Amino acid sequence: MDLVPALQEPLKQPLKSVLGPATAKVMAEHLGLHTVGDLLHHYPRRYEERGQLTHLADLPMDEHVTVVAQVADARLHTFASARAPRGKGQRLEVTITDGSGRLQLVFFGNGVHKPHKELLPGTRAMFAGKVSVFNRRLQLAHPAYELLKGEDGEAVESWAGALIPMYPATAKLESWKIGKAVQTVLPSAQEALDPLPESLRAGRGLVALPEALLKIHRPHSKADIADAHARLKWDEAFVLQVALARRRHADTQLPAVARVPGPDGLLAAFDDRLPFTLTEGQRKVSREIFADLATEHPMHRLLQGEVGSGKTLVALRAMLAVVDAGGQAAMLAPTEVLAQQHHRSVTEMLGELAEGGMLGGAEHGTKVVLLTGSMGAAARRQALLDLATGEAGIVIGTHALIEDKVQFHDLGLVVVDEQHRFGVEQRDALRGKGRQPPHLLVMTATPIPRTVAMTVFGDLETSVLDQLPAGRSPIASHVVPAADKPHFLARAWERVREEVAKGHQAYVVCPRIGDEEDDPKKAAAKKSAEDEAEKRPPLAVLDVAGRLGKGPLHGLKVEVLHGRMQPDDKDAVMRRFAAAETDVLVATTVIEVGVNVPNATVMVIMDADRFGVSQLHQLRGRVGRGAAPGLCLLVSEMPEASAARQRLNAVASTLDGFELSRIDLEQRREGDVLGQAQSGARSSLRVLAVIDDEEIIAEAREEAAAVVAADPDLEHLPGLRTALDALLDEERERYLEKG
Fold first, then answer.
1. What is the pLDDT of residue 507?
2. Residue 651 pLDDT exceeds 60
3. Quick check: 172 pLDDT over 70?
4. End-to-end alpha-carbon separation of the chain, Å?
5. Helix-then-strand count for the chain, H and E
6. Is residue 65 predicted with pLDDT exceeding 80?
7. CA 536 – CA 525 distance, rounded (Å)
8. Given this model, what pLDDT does residue 275 score?
9. Contact 494, 480 (CB under 8 A)
């Protein structure tokens, strides 16, 4: 983060490497660590105390773990096998303990000799490996290990402190090897350039950066760790906030056309024909958006609304305001199904107002066109012509809108539906189609971790719709533990039949389509002993639909919908379902957003543990859209105590999207707040946790705003400039600029 020449030194060099070339190569390829500075900022995840053993009772399955424990016993067995038919095969079984539980280690063949000599009862060591299950017991097969001997000079030096740092590691590089590498480069920490202004650091009583780096990697007490964390959290929060503050500052310098609707235009005509009154929330959010549209720099607003809170209506009113003011509006949807659905609902809501220039069209009307990749050539040509001439005030489409051929007469507003389904580059390409940067409105029903993070960081102006319109029904959600209580699953299908008998419809959602060709190489690879406890593949639409049609839902009209169907077929299936010609729709997450069938009252989500919290909340929002109450059943075979089941219980217990996004964020971490890795593979946040450290983030935002207002180019803060350059490599800088 604060790379200066000593810290910019590559770990791997042609003639003289800081570390061994093999270690440096693994660090670069598997941990993304290329320089001395990168390694110094690879902080320990936790610390082990010499006298205190880790909890073997809490080991997660299928994950690489590092544990400190003591050998309880070790036994060498001989056995006959295909390779050693005369009973000369050898297996060493070592049991280790930490007071909370026991764990078996197993070594085979020639690999038994060294551990047989070294892992004697009473020996303490660190062990690292992947947790698997054999004969219903947890085990580590062929773990790497490092003995902890008090009398061994090197070990005493390596673990000089009372606390042993445990680093985020990989299968190819254990925590203690990373620790030794860090000790090698630790003297360079003295040359780290401090990014915090001196007044800020002194005012908040934070230790200097070199001291913080020493304390986090070689702490002598828990107080050292606390000092280091307090300081390094501020670094991350402040440098990131400066990046965001500079971007906000730059945004205010961009020109945009102010779009102010006239008093008697399209928007007024639309409001007059609405058969219901807007909720107070919808009116308030509309006022915020109209105020932004009236300014001469681009709006950059996030519209956060519960599933079914009427976000589309608010967005449509914003689009009509821009059309009234002489501009055009584009709505970007993540899938063709959703683009078609939006086009249908917008034209229905507008009625004759969507028939501008046509016979019978309203005087104030405009044209609403659809543009998707699968349209016929003639329809596509006409749509492109309507956009170029300005005949069409509103266009709704997929990424087909971004192609070079698409030209707008005067693009004034871009509405992005479900931000997390759409890449930043794609949004940016569409924004680039205006003569000046158009206004941008991003809609989401459940913020994904990165969106929540950005919202907490205050990068987007946020509007919240937290009221459901009158007539919307509550949704009851329940977890169905299929493995523990199979009769619960049988009851779920009975509930589906009961709803259909009342004249309603149902969704059944599966994680997979089921027409994937099996890869023979993958099948062969799965034969290894380590994969014996491999989970079964997720349930598939095509299999489940067949089984339901012949079994528990026999006699009902069951259809399937998935992403690999032809667009016309998908549209036909959705039309039949919307017209209540189909009782049960078995689908993938293609129905996740925007699909609106008020008569659908029940949803069964198979293998619900395979979906994220946000996805489950989105899916659930497809039912209970009419007057009848909704029911969502989350089917899972995961055991009661598992993290997956706890996640499902959280979803079942609340309908609050903000609350769920916080749970999601706490479980998954933020992903890369400035990058594209939403899964959190390598976060630019190493010690800062967005939810836990909201106060630090808010304070850092104020400090950053003051610094940027006084010195936008940071001319007087070279340390901060250096830190920003390291945080914002070219790719992230571009990403940040695009928003």
1. 96
2. yes
3. yes
4. 22
5. 25, 21
6. no
7. 15
8. 86
9. no
Q: Grade residue 289 by pLDDT with cuts at 50, 70 and 90.
A: very high
Residue partners of 701: CB distance under 8 A and separation at least 6: 241, 244, 245, 457, 458
One-letter-per-residue 3-state SS of 673-702: CCCCCCCCCCCCCCCCCCCCCHHHHHHHHH
Residue 296, pLDDT score:
92
> Rounded CA gap, 25 and 428, in Å?
35
pLDDT digits (tens, 9 = 90+) for 614-626: 789 888 888 888 8
- 506 contacts 603 by C-beta, under 8 angstroms: yes
The pLDDT of residue 535 is 56
| 328-332 β-sheet, strand order | 367-371, 392-397, 328-332, 411-417, 439-444, 300-305, 461-465
CB atoms within 10 A of CB 568: 9
Which amino acid belongs to residue 41? H
According to the model, what pLDDT value does residue 529 have? 33
- The model's confidence at residue 655, banded by pLDDT at 50, 70 and 90, is confident
pLDDT digits (tens, 9 = 90+) for 378-408: 999 999 999 999 999 999 998 888 887 889 9
> Which contacts (CB < 8 Å, 24+ apart) does range 481-488 have?
481/636, 481/637, 481/640, 481/645, 482/635, 482/636, 482/637, 483/637, 483/638, 483/639, 484/639, 484/640
d(CA 443, CA 417): 5
Beta bridge partners of 397: 332, 371
DSSP class of 107 = E
Per-residue model confidence as pLDDT tens digits over 217-241: 999 888 999 999 999 999 988 988 8
Q: What is the DSSP letter of 630?
A: E
How many whole angstroms separate alpha carbon 338 and alpha carbon 221?
Answer: 56
597 and 578 Cβ atoms separated by less than 8 Å: yes
Average of per-residue pLDDT across 340-357: 84
Strands 328-332 and 461-465: unpaired
The CA-based dihedral angle spanning residues 247, 249, 250, 252, taken in that order and rounded to the nearest 10 degrees: 130
The 3-state DSSP class for residue 62 equals coil
Pairing of strands 300-305, 439-444: parallel
List, in order, residues 6 or more apart from 295 with CB less than 8 Å away: 256, 258
In a 10 Å sphere around its CB, with 0-12 CB exposed, 13-18 middle and 19+ buried, how is residue 183 labelled?
middle
Sequence-ordered list of residues with C-beta below 8 angstroms from that of 547, at least 6 positions apart, any chain: none
Structure tokens at 383: 């749509």
Quick one: average pLDDT of 671-697?
A: 62
Distance between CA atoms of 239 and 237, rounded to whole angstroms?
A: 6
Determine if the pTM surpasses 0.70.
Answer: no
For 433, the token pair is 């189609």
> What DSSP letter does each residue of 193-258 carry, written as one string?
PP-S-HHHHHHTTPPPHHHHHHHHHS-SSHHHHHHHHHHHHHHHHHHHHHHHHHHHHHHHHS----
Measured in residues, the chain has a length of 739
Q: How many CA atoms lie within 13 A of 2 on its CB side?
A: 25
Phi, psi of 500 (to 5 degrees): -65, -40
